Amino acid sequence: MIKQGEVVTNERGIVMQKEMISMRQAICMITLFLFGNSALMGMGSGMGQDAWIAIVIGAVLGSLISLVYARVIRLFPERNLYDIAQAIFGKIIGKLIIVLMTWYAIHLAALVLRNYSEFIQIVALEETPQLAMMIVMLLITGYMAFSGIEVLSKWVVIAIVLVFMVVLFTVVLSIKQVTLTNILPVMTHDFAAVGSASLKLFAFPFAETVIFLALADSIKKSDNPYKIYLYGIFIGAMILIVTFLRNLMILGVPTLEKAYFPSYTAARIINIGELFSRIEITIFYNLILGGIAKISICLFAAIKGTEILFNIKSNKKIVFFISFIILLVSRYQYNSVMEMIKFIDIYQVYAVPFQIVIPVLVWIGAEIKTRKKRKTT
After folding, report:
1. Number of domains the chain contains
2. Cα distance between residue 93 and residue 4, in whole Å
3. What CATH number should be reported for the domain holding residue 327?
4. Cβ neighbours of 268 (radius 10 Å)
5. 164: closest CA among 23, 31, 297?
6. What is the pLDDT of residues 126-157, one digit of tens each?
């Protein structure tokens, strides 16, 4: 068993200090990762008051695919997806998988970064160029990556407590503004529509937890990866459902569906006297915490992939390089906020190879290799 902070030599012959995170920290990371830009963009999916049903189904589907992710970690403990892919498929196919999954981590970070730059510009800093906002966020997430995953995991534990408190705080303060009848009637959409929305929510955000396979070498062998994934997804889904229902009961279906950032829009309505006005400020910073966490985790995954591809001994040397690529992709992938919203429909198809195909192939290969190894011993 490798202890936290122990200096080790990995299978690529690189001497490095092993950074490990606890099971609680891993669960918190998945929870905040799911909260991220999901709470920012809203979870309506055009389903009105039935969206919470789609969220539940999407979470169930996400839990099922997470069992595949967890099984891979169980078969190859304390190793990340990139090393596992090379061990199973060899260098050529293994490196192809590394390239694809590294790109996915970079692109996902860029998508989230653009979500937040649009959000900040629209609600707070209209005259400030988005490029400046992107650079500031990347400086923060780059610092997280430079500090190491242990520092990030400790920060996430603190951040998730703040997220819980703000969500609970806004729910309590919004009691006078809510209209309970906004959640009715239930199941106004047919099963096909609900199923389609569920698949969209499966891809964004629940199956995005595939990114954590790149960080699996920081999970202790003694920790249960099934519990990490299932607990993280369950808690994350509960927060998202509560957030959605709060927004729905405050805004109503028409306003909810039209709002680019429904959580912030709902918070602007909450006003209890002079003492509790401007509640949206707490929501603003709450959402920013989720964004920083998600981008930082994606940045870690991209750095690890690049480190293995180019046999770089210190991932700290490439933090700036990967951050710069994320900045370029984020800056030029959309021309408007409308394009950003429409891309969510494309994303559920685009993400299939990264979220399902590659992990399933790695899982099958891991099962075969493990059984062959058992027969020879």
Report:
1. 1
2. 32
3. 1.20.1740.10
4. 14
5. 31
6. 888 899 999 999 999 999 998 999 999 999 99
